[in-house]
Amino acid sequence: MDSWHKCTNPMIKISVICKTSADRYTTLFKAISALLNIKFHFFSEYPQNEDCPLIFLDSSEDMLMVARESGKPFISYLARHGSSPKNTSDVVNFSFSNFLPQLLCGQSMVTNEARHLNGIEISEPFEVLAQVQGLPIWVVSSRHKNQYYTSVSLPDLENDNRLSEFFNGETFLKILPIYCFL
User: Fold this and answer.
1) Are the C-beta atoms of 81 and 118 separated by less than 8 Å?
2) Whose CA is closest to 40, among 80, 5, 75?
3) Within a 13 Å sphere around the CA of 102, how many CA atoms are in the beta-carbon half?
4) Which residues of the chain have pLDDT under 70?
5) Is 61 helix (H, G, I), strand (E, B) or coil?
6) What's the confidence (pLDDT) of residue 34?
7) What does the alpha-carbon distance between residue 32 and residue 114 come to, in Å, rounded to a whole number?
8) What is the rounded end-to-end Cα distance, in angstroms, of the chain?
9) Are 182 and 36 in contact (CB under 8 A)?
10) What integer pLDDT is reported at residue 55 of this predicted model?
11) Alpha carbons 59 and 150: distance in angstroms, whole number
12) What does the alpha-carbon distance between residue 38 and residue 87 come to, in Å, rounded to a whole number?
């Protein structure tokens, strides 16, 4: 990154909450940090005194309730929550939502990852951004338009991988929710 870019774009701070180890995502967050000029701070519990967007890698319902009421922007990975995978399709359908990049609106994507995704079940109204066989896999809160939930897992990157290796058909879906959130 050139010095002009660093001077004109101040670093954004994001809190990452992970009750278990976030080590498997270290390479991913380093790559995103360099690409988008973001500083990630890692916490095992909800950071009470942080006033920045949040990424929940695993969370309790209590943590999500606090975050919802705070109105802070967040994305929550709900891979362990919701209904078990019931789909047999490898087609992801994107809605016509204003919260999606225009290029994705109304589009479909074929990926083996789709067969392994849970449907999302949350206790508040939401707008579907993406679904597989009618099961929502990525949504935005209808109440707080800056709060997202997804059952798509982040990719595990090895230390020698580069982020560019993951913008392909099989792993693109895993990067998409966090990319759009950031």
Assistant:
1) yes
2) 75
3) 0
4) 1-10, 79-87, 157-170
5) helix
6) 84
7) 24
8) 18
9) yes
10) 94
11) 13
12) 35
